[in-house]
User: What shape does this take?
Amino acid sequence: MSRPYHPVVKNTLRVLLRIGGVLAVLLGILMLVSLDLVDHRPYLRESYYAETMARLRASDGTKVLVRGEFSAGFGKARLTPTVNAPADIPEKGTFRSLPLAGYGNRKGKPAGGTHDDLFVKAVALKLGDRIGVMVGADALIIPPEVTAMATQRLQKEAGLSREQLYLSATHTHSSFGGWGEGMVGEAFAGGFQPGTRIWFSDCIVAAVLDAIEDIKAAQFGHGRFAAPQFVRNRVVGERGRVDPEFSYIIVKQNQGRIGVLGAFGAHATILSGNQMEFSGDYPGCWQRAIEEQTGGMAVFLAGGVGSHSPVPEGKGFAGTEHMGRNLASRLLEQLPQTPLTNSISFGMLGLEVTLPPFNVRLTDSIRLRPWVAKQLLRTDGNTFLQTFRLGDVCWVSTPCDFSGELALGIKDSFRARGINVTITSFNGDYVGYVILPRYYHLDGYEPRTMSFYGQYVPDYFEDIIRAMIPVLADK
Assistant: This one.
């Protein structure tokens, strides 16, 4: 025969049951207001697609190519911050401590020093009264807040619009952090320090202004070579494809100074999260090797790095040196064979792109409601795509880790039409990974965690890019 519960025990159980019931109700309400089913509506009939395509159709006649005598200039600014300083003076790039950006497993730990210097480098291109500047930064990304600050200053000081600034980062995971605000930004870039944004934008402005000041009569050339041994598909391995091309532009002033811009699709992740010094990874090694041999300036821009990992021989800094210098040697072999001309056609087109609602997923079918995701990711619903066309070359800048596999299809189709396309990532905004739609339902970092806007964004971006390039047509 069981013994009856003591009255105190009964009352305690009633209270606990009531609390549990209230918590269950609150949890249900929280889930109801914060979770939703993943949105699978195709983009073609959505308002964001119509808005963006209407903007593209409204592009005016100033977008057509102009032909003329080519001029160019070079500029750079040292981006390496000074740490362990007695005072925090952000306008001079001096900080008491600063985290590295790129790997969450660093957990915001401060950098321990500098292995090799970081830079912002710029190449100004001019035909007639039209100027465009291509900028590469030894950084994980160029945050949108930094882009806005730099653009405002360059509009005021040099009359440059956003469309005239072609931005990219090397995507080294060993550059400085501190520029990301909010949960997601600080997970990748460490604790937020406002001064890092000021420092970063100041360096971009300095490099661009120096490049414009340096403009002189010049010649232009371009080329590419395959380096499949240095890149692999990190999402599905040999079942997927990779873009093996290293694309480059040569700019040579008539007085002899040379600049080389290069783009390659392997992530700059040879150095691991255990490495705690500032470094440009293999792109930094590539730049130094080119500059040592040419006496000029080398600028690396991350290509279509989505789904693409590096394949170095060796780990750590030995691996960065091997891969960077081997890619440099391959390019240096191409330089004497690359024809140069002082008369080319030139055009630029920038397009504000309306984004779909967030589709940040917890499972394959359940997402955070867009208003919740917006609190975590801090974006304003718009981004930017851009093309610079020089002769038969068109470079396209994207605001993401753009898939190298997606890039292959775009490049192949335009090459058949006599246009050589290069696609680069990290153009001054960041909207996550844009990879092949057929990977969307896989688990993993790229398909699930970092695909912020849903399965149709790759097709949406590809449609826009394919429509933008022909806008820059010869007169």
Remarks:
- DSSP finds eleven helices and 22 strands in the chain.
- The chain has a mean pLDDT of 91.
- The longest helix spans residues 7-34.
